[in-house]
Amino acid sequence: MAQSQVSAKKQQELQQQYTTYKTNLQQLAERIGNVESETEEHKLVLETLTPLPQDRKCFRMINGVLVERTVKDVLPALQTNSDGLKKVLEELVKQYKRQQEEMEKWKEIVQPGDRFSLKKGNQFHGSSLATKKDRYAPKNLIAQYKSCYK
User: Fold this and answer.
1) Among the listed residues 15, 12, 25, 17, the one whose alpha carbon sits nearest the alpha carbon of residue 136
2) Whether the model pTM is above 0.85
3) What share of the chain is helix, strand, coil (3-state, %, to 5)?
4) How many angstroms separate the CA atoms of 100 and 24, rounded?
5) Distances from the Cα of 75 to the Cαs of 4, 14, 66, 91, 137, in angstroms?
6) Closest Cα partner for 42 from 89, 87, 85, 72?
7) Over the stretch 83-113, which tens digit does the pLDDT of each residue have?
8) Which among 48, 51, 135, 137 is least surrounded, fewest beta carbons within 10 Å?
9) Using an 8 Å Cβ cutoff, are 15 and 106 in contact?
10) Structure confidence by residue, pLDDT tens digits, 27-60
11) Which of 14, 2, 8, 28 minimizes the C-alpha distance to 136?
């Protein structure tokens, strides 16, 4: 009886650790998606404004206020913001990779009998958990973002 209680506690702890890893990876993937979206918006605006005359009027939203500026004033700020977003994206992708590697190492450490306790929804996943890498990661996430930080 005492053995089953200890085993149940261990199973619950493993499930909680697994859930924490999964949640962290999902949050990072979501943040990466948001930053990538902002980067694409900046890129589009830069491509649109670059060929225009430098003294042409344009409008920029700053803290919810629409401000009139010239293309000459807006382009450097947009370029700076775009460069900053690319650096943030690089760092988030690195964090995602580190977190994913950490989770894979953790799954290798977990004893084979304990792997059956790790659930996704109502489906149990046995020893195949440690052998199928990137099973739970968004498909080709890293490949999608390599082009953004070249």
Assistant:
1) 25
2) no
3) 70, 10, 20
4) 9
5) 66, 51, 16, 25, 36
6) 85
7) 999 999 999 999 999 999 999 998 888 766 5
8) 51
9) no
10) 999 999 999 999 999 999 999 999 999 999 999 8
11) 28
Residues β-bridged to residue 61: 66
> How far is the C-alpha of 44 from the C-alpha of 61, rounded, in Å?
16
Cα-based distances in Å from 63 to 60, 67, 100: 10, 10, 35
What percent of the chain stands above pLDDT 70? 69
For residue 104, CA distances in Å to 3, 24, 92 come to: 28, 14, 18
What is the C-alpha separation between 16 and 105, in angstroms, rounded? 16
